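Researcher: Let's do a round of design. I'm pasting the structure tokens now; please hold your answer until I've finished.
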């Protein structure tokens, strides 16, 4: 194997020069760099990671410690961690504990000796004492799928309580009263939380809890089989089973079959976590499905963002939602003649319905947990903190929902004006070295606070490239330069961390289907007129990518996000880019799919669509958008739009760009008062610039606009200076 000295000899330079080339030093001439690179390529030299780690004090390795890599749940989590880590140049050590404390401790010793940069672990129990070795050495740690007591540490998990409650509620709705739960060890929070959700559903339905029907064991098929067999031998056996994970469900299926019973005809079955190809396997499980891959991605993001942070970050808790997926195993389709006879093979797949499991309040979960502790079924655990309310962003959201607030909110979607930052913050804004954007999220939030804005926009539409549209080459759809999901989550999280405690909300902005700017939209509109099939394939490629992004963001950050803003340039100054029938055919249905994740999470969705809006407003309303930006007065009659769409579509923007640019200040203030008086009564209008704050806009003009808007207060339904 070639060494750095071999490279130096072949290139005719010193080893120090080779090292400088490898580290991208600017102290080596281009000719020497080229000579060294040729030698590296000829010898096939690979730099030593160990040597690099000595220089940087990093090994660029992470440890992933999981309980059972035979379970597809954990292999999918591992894939999410690995994909995210590899994208940032990290390698991952995979360790399997078999839920054995001694094996876990052995692996902790190994990863410590390997000097990994951080650890992602699903611990065997809920006590921080078992992870004391990591805490003592201050090794960054993320807990995945579980949480622990006695240590404030980053955690990412699915919503076990909500998912369990939804499954058991569904069984109760089908008429079941004797429902058994088979779960893992009581000292793991995942097992306990799923029993809490089970208990909560029974209590809400007025069904007395029978301790005989609650079985703790292991998250393994053998344990599921043993416990189900014992339950079926009871004098009054259960009529339905809730398996707390997919491998337990497999064991329950085996036990039910040995007792000569059929699922779902004789015994209903639901499970936490999906099985691969579940729609093709008998008995077509009804499940509470978690975003498993995203658990891994988020765990890696938490760890890598902590490693990259210059300052200590507070402990973060990420709770991703579960979804109730109703199939055959619960028996809900037995009343349907078309679904009463189950046989293999399945040629058409299996119908299913999917819905997010409603969250459970901390108070309700705590009361249920206390009841179970009184029964001797659970031990105590650490309470989860409740997020702080944000009164200012609530004012904005109320206005966008056509409600009267205490004052008119103020919002600028984009501020790209270095002079304004310097004037308001008292220092120059810094270029964000991570994203490449000219302003850091932290500076944007500080500026929003100083200007009194009720929300700030996190713009993901340009992250990773100049645009987010796919390009078409013949019949092939090529991907654009889009930032990895990990980078997008990182960037959004920086905004959410920055607004904490400020009262400012975060609106996340992503590119839509027609292009992030007027040129891209016009090009796609022309393509739709000449080759509609290719245009639709191009839009479908963008739709799939953006759906994944929106789902990942909303599943994780839904409680912290104020709203979602989609950019789709549908109109020019003189009207729609496509005729309305074509827009309905190629855009409307896809747009409904695009915003579905936001609507699923009950988030307001806006569309940024410059140009003349009157003709397309009915389509935007039918798609499901809640507000429209920027309603530029240069090509729109604001008063007419307001009259036509009051109570249906809120308007944002509306302040003329030319006046904001040229002034004078007293004219800006007068126009702001006029907008507020004519459009803002009763909610449904949020003033701001029509085109954003560009670098040439005088800082004093922006400040005058902000102050004029905020000087208006609601007084018995009227606005007065």
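Researcher: That's everything. Go ahead.
Model: Designed sequence:
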């Amino acid at each position: 194997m070639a060494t750095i000295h071999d490279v130096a000899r072949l290139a005719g330079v010193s080893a120090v020069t080779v090292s400088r080339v490898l580290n991208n030093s600017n102290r080596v001439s281009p000719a020497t760099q080229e000579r060294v690179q040729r030698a590296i390529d000829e010898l096939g030299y690979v730099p030593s990671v160990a040597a690099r780690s000595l220089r940087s004090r990093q090994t660029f390795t992470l440890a992933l410690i999981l309980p059972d890599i035979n379970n597809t749940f954990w292999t999918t989590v591992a894939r999410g961690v690995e994909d995210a880590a590899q994208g940032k140049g990290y390698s991952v050590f995979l360790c399997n504990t078999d839920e054995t404390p001694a094996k876990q401790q052995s692996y902790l010793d190994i990863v410590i000796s390997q000097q990994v940069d951080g650890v992602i672990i699903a611990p065997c129990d809920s006590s921080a004492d078992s992870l004391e070795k990591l805490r003592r050495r201050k090794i960054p740690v993320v807990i995945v799928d579980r949480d622990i007591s006695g240590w404030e540490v980053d955690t990412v998990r699915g919503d076990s309580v909500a998912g369990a409650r939804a499954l058991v509620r569904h069984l109760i709705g089908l008429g079941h009263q004797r429902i058994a739960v088979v779960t893992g060890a009581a000292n793991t929070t995942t097992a306990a939380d799923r029993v809490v959700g089970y208990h909560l559903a029974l209590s809400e339905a007025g069904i007395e809890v029978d301790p005989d029907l609650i079985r703790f064991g292991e998250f393994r098929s053998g344990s599921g089989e043993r416990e189900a067999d014992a339950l079926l031998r009871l004098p009054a056996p259960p009529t339905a089973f809730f398996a707390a994970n997919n491998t337990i469900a497999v064991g329950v299926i085996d036990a039910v079959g040995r007792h000569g019973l059929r699922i779902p005809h004789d015994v209903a079955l639901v499970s936490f976590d999906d099985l691969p190809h579940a729609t093709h396997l008998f008995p077509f499980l009804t499940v509470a499905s978690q975003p498993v891959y995203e658990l891994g991605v988020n765990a890696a993001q938490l760890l890598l963002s902590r490693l990259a942070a210059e300052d200590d970050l507070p402990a973060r808790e990420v709770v991703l939602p579960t979804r109730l997926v109703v199939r055959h195993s619960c028996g809900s389709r037995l009343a349907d003649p078309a679904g009463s006879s189950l046989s293999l093979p399945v040629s058409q797949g299996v119908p299913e319905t999917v819905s997010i499991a409603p969250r459970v309040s901390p108070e309700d979960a705590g009361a249920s947990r206390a009841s179970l502790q009184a029964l001797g079924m659970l031990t105590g655990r650490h309470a989860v903190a409740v997020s702080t309310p944000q009164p200012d962003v609530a004012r904005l959201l109320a206005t966008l929902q056509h409600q009267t607030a205490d004052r008119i909110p103020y919002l600028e979607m984009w501020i790209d004006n270095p002079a304004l930052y310097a004037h308001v913050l008292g220092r120059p804004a810094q270029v964000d070295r991570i994203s490449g954007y000219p302003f850091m999220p932290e500076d944007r939030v500080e500026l929003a606070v100083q200007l009194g804005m009720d929300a700030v926009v996190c713009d993901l539409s340009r992250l990773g490239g100049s645009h987010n549209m796919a390009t078409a080459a013949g019949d092939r759809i090529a991907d654009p330069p889009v930032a990895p999901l990990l980078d997008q989550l990182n960037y959004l999280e920086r905004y959410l961390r920055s607004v904490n405690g400020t009262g400012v909300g975060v609106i996340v902005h992503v590119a839509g289907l027609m292009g992030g700017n007027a040129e891209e939209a016009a090009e796609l509109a022309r393509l739709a007129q000449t080759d509609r099939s290719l245009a639709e394939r191009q839009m479908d490629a963008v739709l799939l990518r953006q759906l994944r992004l929106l789902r990942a963001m909303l599943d994780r950050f839904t409680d912290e996000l104020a709203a979602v803003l989609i950019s789709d340039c549908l109109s020019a100054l003189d009207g729609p880019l496509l005729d309305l029938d074509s827009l309905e055919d190629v855009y409307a249905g896809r747009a409904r799919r695009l915003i579905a994740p936001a609507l699923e999470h009950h988030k307001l969705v806006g569309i940024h669509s410059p140009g003349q809006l009157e003709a397309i407003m009915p389509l935007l309303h039918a798609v499901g958008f809640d507000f429209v930006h920027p309603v530029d007065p240069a090509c729109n009659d604001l008063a007419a739009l307001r009259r036509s769409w009051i109570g249906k579509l809120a308007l944002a923007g509306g302040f003329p760009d030319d006046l904001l640019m040229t002034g004078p200040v007293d004219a800006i203030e007068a126009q702001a008062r006029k907008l507020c008086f004519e459009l803002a009564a009763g909610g449904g209008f949020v003033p701001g610039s029509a085109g954003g704050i560009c670098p040439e806009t005088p800082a004093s003009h922006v400040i005058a606009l902000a102050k004029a808007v905020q000087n208006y207060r609601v007084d018995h339904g009227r606005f007065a200076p």
